[in-house]
């Protein structure tokens, strides 16, 4: 049995389930209680669980994360919302210097089970600092787990799995997919850090996460019309990477193209490409190629369609891989 949700509503349902299951779970963020968040992802939770567990904070991201660290040390499991991806930088020091390091600093005696929810990516016609893809900053930081949902089913289950983790989790939500609807299963089909093979491919495999998964699936469908078998893998977790799944699809298709919205220079695609090259060198018939945003600051909204990877750019890169 399953229920149909939009991705944002699925996160809401997952948060509700986690809060009902454990009274130590609480929410913190700007406008998340009275307003229900900019995208209404936390709508109704304050009315159900009260103002002490769904807290409207000041506009101070470092204060949000710093307070969450203190609460976690006292046994709570805070879930922090960063209103937009580009707003996380004031909390960067708290996240990478404190949140990520506490378990190692205490030699395992202390844990910080904190989830930081970050709406990520472009595609909504927003202004500066509202459309960034900054996952590489946090994936580079030892001590953090970094995950990225792409479907309502994953959103519902992954947010609960992240809250149950005793390690801090950066939880990316593709904001332009908040309104995409699909079935949500009662039980999760995979663990938090397991990639998903969404489509098998014999000629090439597209590896994507978060907002670009739907774009990769559309490109694979278009390639099929031209007679090519292109697979799609949803990473789901950026750190740690599911290397066994990457090995499997590389051995089957022998060509890999990585797709993400962040700039390609030192992006997640670079790590995926290096990992596949090291682990699967003799299976590859072409170098691992990448499709991402250009190495420029995020442009004004009227230019973002030319900035972000689309079906045509993905197909052109698949052609380049096939022609090696």
Search tags:
single chain, 324 residues, alpha/beta, 7-stranded mixed β-sheet, 5-stranded mixed β-sheet, 12 helices, 14 strands, 21% strand, globular
Overview of the structural elements:
With 324 residues, this protein is α/β, with parallel strands linked by helices. It has twelve helices and 14 strands. The strands form three sheets. The protein has a seven-stranded mixed beta sheet with strand order 3-2-4-5-7-6-12, sandwiched between helices. The chain has a five-stranded mixed beta sheet with strand order 9-11-10-13-14, with helices on both faces. Helix 1 packs parallel to helix 7 and helix 9 packs across helix 10. The model has no long low-confidence stretch (mean pLDDT 97).
Q: Give the tally of β-strands.
A: 14
**Mean pLDDT score:** 97
Strand order of the largest sheet: 3-2-4-5-7-6-12
Order of helices and strands: EHEHEHEHHEHEHEEEEHEEHEHEHH
Shape: globular
Approximate strand percentage: 15-25%
Low-confidence stretches: none
The proportion of residues forming helix, as a percent range, comes to: 25-40%
Distance between the termini: 46 Å
Structural class: alpha/beta
Rg calculated over all Cα atoms: 19 Å
Largest β sheet strand count, sense and barrel closure: 7 strands, mixed
Helix segment count? 12
